[in-house]
Amino acid sequence: MILFAVYAFGIWTIAWRHRRRWPAFAAIFAGVPPILISARLDVWLVEKLFGEDAWHLFTLGLIFAGIIVFIGLVLAVQPRHRPEHECRSCGYDLRGLASPACPECGVGPGGSVQPALDRSPSPAPVVAAALAEARRERRRASSTFSDATTTAPINVANPTADQ
Q1: Hey, how many other C-beta atoms are within 10 angstroms of the C-beta on 72?
Q2: How confident is the model over 23-70, as pLDDT tens digits?
């Protein structure tokens, strides 16, 4: 008897966790055939073992399946609430941002798209440009040093005279 409750609770848990998405509805409707198959198997066993008409067991299985589907659908159509710190449009975590607008999609706190001028520019291009300039400076400095050392004439007769 407890297995019926565990089975129903399992289907309802899946329906609640995946509400408003297709896995919730798939779990609900995929849970019905096992109930009907087990009810039909119960009817067959009672008829074979005891020789009695037991179609009332199948009726109970239909009622049980109907209850699972009804409660599962009520749970599956419930709205999904995003936490307050997530963007309503894309789900980006907005904690710690100075601007209330989402940096990913530009949606503001009221759900309206903020103009691109209101969004703070990303520091990534500035940092990348600074790193590229520093790299170029290092190359220039190293190439100047290598040119100076490789083009200087070497005094073979007196190697310490150049120093």
Answers
A1: 24
A2: 999 999 999 999 999 999 999 999 999 999 999 999 999 999 999 999
Residues 6+ apart with CB under 8 A from 88: 82, 107, 111
Among 43, 25, 26, 34, residue whose Cα is nearest residue 6: 34
Contact of 100 with 116, CB cutoff 8 Å: no
Asked if residues 162 and 152 have their Cβ atoms less than 8 Å apart, the reply is yes
* Short-list 74, 83, 87, 90, CA closest to 19: 74
User: How much is the pTM?
Assistant: 0.54
- Give dist(CA 60, CA 97) in Å, integer: 56
Instruction: Report CA 31 to chain centroid distance, whole Å.
Output: 26
The CB-based long-range contact list for 8-14 (8 Å cut-off, 24+ gap) reads 8/64, 8/67, 8/68, 8/71, 11/68, 11/72, 12/68, 12/71, 12/72, 12/75
Q: What is the DSSP letter of 161?
A: S
